[in-house]
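Quick one, tokens below. Sequence please?
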């Protein structure tokens, strides 16, 4: 039986693992970096690897909210979906520290399963396009691993 603490930690993005008859062990589920698939040539040839918003708008031609998305507050206000994302949604990610915390981050939801979310993004690693996948017991746990606050669906 999991304790209240285990359940709270699990809801915060930690995976609870274990088997019947043994004590539950807690393990941080870190996002996994993936190779960007060949069909995503636009990502490989991106001109805006240094700007997450311009990468999605101009290079990937994603359905983005209108207006200036320079700052986190604008990204936060653009969230119109909470819960399970769909392929093509824009994930809004607040940054909690560092020089660019005021800006936040946006990514493209590339794939969703019952337990994982895969995102495509620019400038998570400086001047690079990367693809990350987080896995949890459900999509909410996977979103917590990626620190996703919500999604924009155009």
């Amino acid at each position: 039986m999991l304790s209240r603490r285990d359940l709270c930690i699990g809801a915060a993005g930690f995976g609870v693992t274990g088997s019947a008859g043994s004590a539950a062990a807690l393990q941080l589920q870190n996002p996994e970096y993936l190779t960007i698939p060949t069909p995503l040539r636009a990502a490989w040839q991106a001109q805006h690897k240094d700007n997450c918003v311009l990468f999605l708008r101009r290079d990937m031609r994603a359905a983005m909210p209108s207006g200036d998305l320079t700052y986190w507050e604008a990204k936060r206000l653009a969230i119109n979906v909470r819960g399970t994302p769909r392929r093509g949604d824009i994930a809004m990610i607040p940054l909690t520290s560092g020089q660019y915390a005021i800006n936040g981050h946006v990514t493209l939801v590339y794939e969703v399963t019952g337990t994982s979310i895969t995102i495509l993004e620019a400038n998570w690693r400086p001047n690079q396009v990367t693809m990350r996948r987080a896995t949890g017991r459900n999509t909410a746990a996977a979103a917590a691993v990626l620190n996703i606050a919500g999604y924009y669906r155009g």
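The longest helix spans residues 4-11. The mean pLDDT is 85.
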